Structure formats: structure tokens, C-alpha cells
Amino acid sequence: MAAPKVAVVGAGVIGLSTALCIVETYPSCSVTILSEQFSPNTTSDVAAGMLIPHTYPGTPIHVQKQWFKETFTDLFAISNSGEASEAGIHLVSGWQIFKNPPKEELPFWSDVVLGFRPMSEAELQKFPQHRFGQAFTTLKCDCPPYLLWLEKRLKANGIQMCTRKVADLWELHSDYNVIVNCAGIGAHQLVGDEKLFPVRGQVLKVCAPWVKNFIRDGDGSTYIYPGIHRVTLGGTREKENWSLSPDPGTTKDIFDRCCSFEPSLRGAQDIEVKVGLRPARQCVRLQREVLRRGGVKLQMVHNYGHGSGGFSMHRGTAKEAARLVGECIAALQGSSSRAKL
Question: How would you classify the pairing of strands 160-163 and 231-234?
Fold first, then answer.
């Protein structure tokens, strides 16, 4: 058969990284990204981009660890290169703090991040309301620069990007051999996934260049994540809330909570409020599917439902999605060979 044509639906961090992995793994493929929105108007642009995993109850821990490890390894290499600044990737050290010690004092990702250890008594004095903490160094993606860097690499690999709203996957079957669904929260409507639901996140992006260390409440409800140019303050986790409008009361609550951890933030300037809808489900949907209509088959790969963990897992799940695309191509080539016999 001719060079397989692959359409990736969605242009957030999952869609872009999946398209890149596909073209890196199968250079003969023709890959097109279709999305109603590109950066800076995606959910990924709102994300803090910290590599601290969110646990998926429905996904085996060893699989989650593999996805995280692959992501961390790839991004660590970028952070160690001359492209780190343009890609918006840097190492950041800090603390995860708890009012009571967690059940698991060693999370599954503790040996992937750098220098993971319990906080000392002296360090805990900074947080008098908290009795236990973990110190470590991880990676942070400044999201808009990282998405633009991915787009630049995609264009260099000949991948086309088209602004298009896809309402029905079958509208693509005459132009593409394989469809990869990276639609995020859009998959709720696109494939009718009732297990997918929004978790609304409101964050503040502020100018506070003196803040160098991240601080994160153990349950992830309050966090301070310093980026290259701005500090992200959060947050909220509001299940089934579809509103993209900033709430002024929430803004004040986030700011007050973060100032209780880091009082110097009272001097932060240039406060910008952002809202995004995390595409959440019990487990990431990462699987092959063959859709059938009449006698026609449509080869599909799904890669969505990362919730709060998109940046932490994106390279790992993209590599697995690319492998599944390879299975789709092999199936097409097999049927093409049989048709000739």
C-alpha cells in the first residue's frame, strides 16, 4: 500500500506528542493534526506542566510508572540540551507537604524524580501547620513554549496542522487510513465516552521571580510552581464543572492559600487568571479499536483521559499510542496483501 495516512485529532500536549512519536517511529507515514484549537488556546496551555504524577485508579501502577519514567527521561534530556530554554523545560526543586504522614511514604514515582527524601525538621519549620514532607527535584514544562517547540519539530518532520472541528470520526475515513483520537475533554462528545468527565482547574499566573522552589500540598489542592518567567498558583479540582469563566472568589481563595505557604507572594505582580477542563476518567483510554459501518472498517487508536497527569505521562502514552498505530498499519497492509491475492 501507499504511505499510510494518519490523522491525529487534538492539538494539546497529548495530540502533538503522539503525532511526533508516530512520525519518529514510522517515518514513511503521512501525519496530519486536526484540531479546532491550537496553542495558546488549548487546555494544555493552562496546565502547570509539573512532572508530579496523578494516580489513575484503573491503570496498573507498573504501567503508570513506565509512562512517567519514559516522559521524565525524554524531558530530562531536553533540559540538559541547548534547546531547554526554547522548549521551556527546566529542573525545579521543592517540597510536598502533609498535615499528617501519608499511607504511602514512598510514592511509585519516588525513584524516577531526583533526590527524593523525607524533609528535615529544619525544613518543616517553614510550614508550621504540616508535620511531614518530601523534598525532591523534578521537571517543569512552561506549557505555551513547550507546545510551540513541539509544533516546530512537527513542521520540521513534514506534519501538517489544520484548524478543523471534527464532529464525527467517520467524516475522516475517506482521507485517512488511521485515526488517532487525542481530543481530551472533546472525546466526551466525539466518541460519546460517558466515563470521561471534566475536572475544572482555575490557576493564577503571577510575576514573583524571587520564588525559586515549588511547594505542593500533599493532596495537590494547593500548589506554587515556579516557571521560567511566571509562577503558577493553584488550584481547584471541581468535578463535572464545565465552566471556563474565572471565578473571582476562587481567585482570592487560591491566592490566600498560596500566601499561607509562601507569605512573600503578597508582593506578586501582574496576576493573570486561567481556567481549563482536565479530561478525567478512572484510567487513561489508550487502546486500538476498529469501527465498522456497513462493510467499511475504520482503524482507530484512542489516547485521552489523562486528567491532571497529562504532562507527567505524555511521552510514555504517546510512545504506546504510536506502537498501536503500527499495529493498525500492519493490519491494513495485511488486508491490502490479501486483497491482491
Answer: unpaired
In eight-state DSSP terms, residue 50 is B
Q: Which residues pair with 141 in a beta bridge?
A: 89
Q: Report the amino acid identity of residue 47.
A: A
Q: Cβ distance 271 to 258 under 8 Å?
A: no
Q: What is the rounded distance in angstroms from the CA atom of residue 204 to the CA atom of residue 65?
A: 29
Question: Is 223 annotated among the ligand-binding residues?
Answer: yes
Burial 125-161 (b: 16+ CB within 10 A, else e): eebeebebbbbbebbbbbbbbbbbbbbebbeeeebeb
3-state class of 59 per DSSP? coil
Domain coordinates in residue numbering, the chain: 5-337
Q: How many CB atoms lie within 10 A of CB 176?
A: 21
pLDDT tens sequence across 167-177: 999 999 999 99
The model's pTM: 0.94
Transcribe 145-191 into DSSP letters.
Answer: HHHHHHHHHHHHTT-EEEE---S-GGGGTTT-SEEEE--GGGHHHHS
Interval 85-89 mean pLDDT:
97
Q: Is the dihedral of CA 74, 114, 307, 79 positive or negative?
A: negative
Q: Is 251 annotated as a binding residue?
A: no
Q: Which fold has domain 5-337?
A: Rossmann fold (3.40.50)
In this structure, what is the dihedral angle of CA atoms 187, 58, 116, 200, given to the nearest 10 degrees?
40
Q: State whether residue 282 is helix, strand or coil.
A: strand
Residue 278 in marked binding region: yes
